[in-house]
Amino acid sequence: MAEMTSMESSPKPLLSLRNINMSFGGISALKNVSFDVLPGEVHCLAGENGSGKSTLIKIVTGVYRPEPGTIIDYDGQTYPHMSPMTAQAAGIQVIWQDLALFPEMTVAENIAFQTVLGSRPRFVHYGHMRDIAVKALARLGVSLDVDLPLKEYAIAQRQIVAIARALVGEAKLVFMDEPTASLTQSETDHLLDIVRNLSAAGVAVVFVSHRLAEVLDISNRLTVLRDGALVGVYPAAGMIQSRITELMTGKTFDHKLRARDVSANPVVLEVQNLSRPGLFEDISFTVRRGETLGITGLLGAGRTELALSLFGMLKPRSGTIRLEGKPVRFSSNRDAIAAGVAYLSEDRLSLGLVQPQSIADNLVVASLGRITSGGFLSDDRKRELVAGWITNLGIRIGRQGDAVSTLSGGNQQRIAIAKWLATDPKLLILDAPTVGVDVGARAGIFEIIAKLADSGLAIILISDEVPEVYFHADRVLHMAEGRIVNRFAPRDCTLRDIEAAVYA
Amino acid sequence: MNALFNRTRAFLGPEMAGPGFALLAVIVFFSLASPQFLSRATFGSVAFQLPELGLLTLAMLLPVLTGGLNLAITFTANIAGLTAAWVLKSNGGVDAGPFAFFMACLLAIGVGAASGLVMGLVIAYTRAHPILVSLSMMIFLRGLGEFLTRGGDISGFPAFIQPLGHGSILGLPIPLLIFIICVLIWHLLLTRTKLGFNTYMIGSNIEATRYSGINTRRVQVLVYTLSGAMCAIAGIIMMARFNSVRVGHGESYLLITVLACFLGGVNPFGGFGRVIPVFVALVVLQLLSSGLNLIGANQHLATAVWGILLIAVMVLRFSAGRLKFLQRIKG
């Protein structure tokens, strides 16, 4: 399975792992994996959730101790395993996805606190910490007010603070776990510039990201893991996104255009001149039966706000919404649901599903009327309804009573879709339905969406990943700063056309 | 047979393990320590003491399940009792008729519900923290009650209301019967109605529940209103038991109701917990204090033992969680 590219003229690796084996409770997390990082390179670690990326990072940084037989060569020394202390002392730093910062403390304290820990004298000199912080930020070419508490800054700046903190420790090797997951495009671009600067200054960066476009943009090489085993190491030059997906999942996906002509179908939703100043303005479009309308644009373009106003949770200031010809005015999302509108939230963890509660309860929460008989809820009806949807959407669950949080991202999203289908909607708004869903499971979600459209449902598919709307929608709207700036028909344009417009 | 077992298990729920075990332990310990423990007298004392604390605990349970708290329960019960007393007094006092008593109960429940309604509205619409809102209500009701009664007792009720606090039907104390009926109503409410379903959902994540098309404000308002109404029932029972109403009666129960919920497996942050285990937990607390009384322990010591028990439960629950976690890791 492993296909190694030859590297005759390559320099001696900074980090070289051989024969890593690691298992948890009899389940093998890493099988005989090898991993090299060259000095100053940007190396991408790619793989689906559960492929072993985090485990690998935790072994290098000393959080986990691999099984005997492992050899870790780092910077001219050989270790049987790392410990967090030795890893840090040797200049290995990690920026975890949750950043592990202290929101109440100042930027300076966040950046410099490690340098004053345990060192003498025991008194903390704030001025000294300030100097360290300013210097570290300057290295990144960023200026922040180091005296402000961190919580005053947005996620993108916090990310930079976390990087600055890593640099204070004289890092030679920095791991970044999904650093762009919650950043907008321009913030991401800025971060990637910083990564390039680090690399140019001789710091090796190992980058973990689900966004393949970024991966190709920034990395020199990539290592692909699947199910805890090494698939291969590849140069980024010449690699394309679909090939990475194939390597990560072991499956081939045919990227065929889904777009069809549904202009003969009756109109389900008609929006005219809908405005809510500051959020979106002068929005007009229609969605027909069986049609999938894609809406794309950068984060903050007003897509979600538009969706929420169609769902009755945000009142538009002016304009009209017509459902099957009749003008509607929703005073809450209850009205919208009753009228046949369903909205799948982009934030599955905190708004889409009630994570600690059961699979069954999450599935029926929006359609309790269906499981009520004689004024009381019926357990039997609930079980039947849930079992029906579980089979219908091919959802893999343990028991209906298990917490929804025990499911994988893909299966959670299917539960969320089932919850809305149970309300028997005419219009289904899917806001970023593949966020936090593995590449392999995404295809399954899109299969469901295609089937729903074929059965006559009108669908609005919102995504900031242009290929998703290009391949899966019949028409595509491009929103920027609250307005529809372009309308595309995937059958008459190329993916590049839309990408060029969106990322211009 | 298996189906019956599963039904029973579903009825009791996994939260039952802790209280069930505690019940067994208490019964075994005290029957060994004192031969009089398993007797009618013990049953009688538990049966008459249980309802007051129990009804107040039911009033606390609903808000706790939504992730809130109702600190005004005891004073709501007092104010409801005062309302009933006032109706009886203005209809002849000792000579008041059954109809006057019926109206008194109705009005008392109305006043209790109104206190809950106000808290519910404030919590739902201002999103102020339930602790602060109910604390304010508690202080208001206490002040109001003390102002109206000038700190004294109101007494002199018709004789026919006394059985409500002391009488028995078929050997079962009437207050216990009322309490059991209320337990069953709460059980039905939480397991079989939309309101109950939504109470749990809100307790886990109110925003996600709102996004699912649930009128979360309505649920919160109803939950606190029902909580207030339940306080009123407790207030009426207290009036009948003491044959008087006094602002401050039952004040010491307030925190014990929270602990009883916790002992009954209710998640202190909301979203999880069932009525029947809480009922068993209440029986355990009451048996414990009766048993200690029987073996000659000081009343204050009994309270101390309650505290120890609850700490032990926390430690045990933590250990059980660890054990489960370790088993899962071992696979």
Question: What descriptive keywords fit this protein?
Answer:
heterodimer; A: 504 residues; alpha/beta; Rossmann fold; 4 domains; seven-stranded mixed β-sheet; 17 helices; 23 strands; globular; disordered N terminus; B: 331 residues; mainly alpha; two-stranded antiparallel ribbon; 14 helices; 4 strands; 76% helix; ABC_transp_permease (chain B); transport (chain B); transmembrane helix (chain B); membrane (chain B); ABC transporter permease (chain B)
Break the fold down into its secondary structure elements and pairings:
The complex is a heterodimer of chains A (504) and B (331).
Chain A: E1 3-4, E2 15-24, E3 27-37, E4 42-46, H1 53-60, E5 71-74, E6 77-79, H2 84-89, E7 92-95, H3 107-116, H4 126-139, H5 155-168, E8 173-177, H6 185-200, E9 204-208, H7 212-218, E10 221-226, E11 229-235, H8 241-249, E12 267-276, E13 280-288, E14 292-296, H9 303-310, E15 318-323, E16 326-328, H10 333-339, E17 341-344, H11 348-352, H12 359-364, E18 372-373, E19 376-377, H13 379-392, H14 409-421, E20 427-431, H15 439-454, E21 458-462, H16 466-472, E22 475-480, E23 483-488, H17 495-503
Helix pairs in contact in A: 3-4, 3-5, 4-5, 14-15, 16-17
Chain B: H1 2-12, H2 17-33, H3 40-65, H4 73-89, H5 98-126, H6 130-149, E1 153-155, H7 163-166, E2 168-169, E3 172-173, H8 174-192, H9 194-204, H10 206-211, H11 216-242, E4 244-246, H12 253-263, H13 275-294, H14 299-330
Antiparallel strand pairs in B: 1-4, 2-3
Helix pairs in contact in B: 2-13, 3-8, 3-11, 3-12, 3-13, 4-5, 4-6, 4-11, 5-6, 5-11, 8-9, 9-11, 12-13, 13-14
